[in-house]
Amino acid sequence: MTELTHDGTAKTIDTARGPLHYHETGDGPPLLLLHGSGPGVSAWANYRGNLAVFAEHFRVLALDFPGFGKSYSPDGNPMPAALPAVVDFLDALGLDSLPVLGNSMGGNVAARLAGTLPERVSRLVTIGGIGLPVFNPSPSEGIKLLVQFVEDPTRDRLMAWMESMVHDTAILTEEFVELRWQAASDPAALADVRKLFNAGSLAAMRDRNAGAADAVGLLTKIQAPTLITFGRDDRVTPLDSALLPMRLIPKCELHVFHDCGHWAMIERKDEFESTVLSYLLRDLKKPELL
């Protein structure tokens, strides 16, 4: 396959709420990828290394949420704007039920899509971002460092946050950090991230009772076969967050990557791709080969 590039895979589609930017590559049944949150994040930043492998089996659609990448900027907090944008995106492309994979914020949005519109999700895969921490304090170390960067956006603070996202800091190459720094230091991008992460959001996270009942109730409504993946050393959504979804989602499986932080798709790329593809391709295997 020809090497994939940002511009070579980039597309934009208009919706009633504004333009949505995404990356598309590959043939076959559609697969939706939803990125996480944080400084400089986008669909390309999260998944650029995985697109070619998934594209061997799927028509891969990696969406930029409102307030991230090159999609429109929402009026308020990007989090509540994300799920309506996903529905708008699927409607605009004429897509019905499909597998959805989400990292962090993207996993949260994917879970809400599966719980509230079960007819739109055939299989659900998450990388962190789902459940509630049972033993660890909230907010987590990674979230605190993220807010510190947002309040004082220096390269050193960005590096401190990125180090909290991984187990092995050797993957934070100069090219990788520079890519994030250029995107994260953009004034418009900073303004949108500040709507999501700030002192108020930290205070809300400390109130563990607020929204807990709704979060637990959502898990019980997810009917799609679900694979939840976690890095054993995740310092953003700690591993104990997996306990509730593992028990409450009816058709749920759990895979834990050792020596791995919050970015399993980057830090444990080969194992992640192998695990997820094995799960997603179950639906595509011919009965005579089973």
From TrEMBL:
In short, the EC number is: 3.7.1.14
Domain AB hydrolase-1, residue spans: 29-268
Q: What is this protein called?
A: 2-hydroxy-6-oxonona-2,4-dienedioate hydrolase
The region called Disordered is annotated at 1-21
Q: Name one GO molecular function term.
A: hydrolase activity
The keyword Cytoplasm is assigned to this record = no
What organism, scientifically named, is this protein from?
Answer: Pseudonocardia parietis
Domain of life of the native organism: Bacteria
Q: Which UniProt keywords apply?
A: Hydrolase
Looking up InterPro entries in the UniProt record yields: AB_hydrolase_1 (IPR000073), AB_hydrolase_fold (IPR029058), Epox_hydrolase-like (IPR000639)
Q: What is the lineage of its organism?
A: Bacteria, Bacillati, Actinomycetota, Actinomycetes, Pseudonocardiales
* Coiled coil (residue ranges): none
Q: Note whether Hydrolase occurs among the keywords.
A: yes
Q: Which Pfam families match?
A: Abhydrolase_1 (PF00561)
